[in-house]
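Exercise 3.2. Students should predict the tertiary structure of the chain below and write it as structure tokens, then compare their answer with the key that follows.

Predict this chain's 3D structure.
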Amino acid sequence: MKPLPLTVRLAAGLAVTAVEQARKLPGQLAGLPVTVVSEALQLSMRLQQRVTELAIKGDDVLSVLRPVEQEPEWATFDEDEGVAAPATTADTDLDTDADDPWAVEEQALAAEPPAVLPNYDELSLAQLRARLRTLTAEDLEELLAHERTHAARPEFTGMLTRRIANLHNQ
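Answer key:
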């Protein structure tokens, strides 16, 4: 017996598959909405991941053009709000010696670590912020004077100055 042509065999196979799928359809209809929603959510998640990956790549490229801020201008803390910085004695001392770079250098070398926080120079900004509420105004003045004669990091001096102002206003 000669086999039937390929197109006839394919049509018969498709017809049998269609009948089988039609018999399974009532059982699959109950799960169909869940399947559709699940696939839509998966597609949404893949799209979000791709957008995030592209944004990260863009940030990496653009970071070369624009330096990162140590403390962004939008970052505010409870102790930063509406307080003017008081003038301290360290301000005037630093101004008189600012013309002589050797005097500033000698002050930095002669000063010992502050007794309040002996490991102050190793602290990050966040670590110092966590310890601020436990310090008195005098302790903070000592840290501020130390900071100004050593590293003079603007974010550190600003935070210490604001905290001292808050303590004086309380």
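Discussion points: Residues 1-68 form one domain. The radius of gyration is 35 Å.
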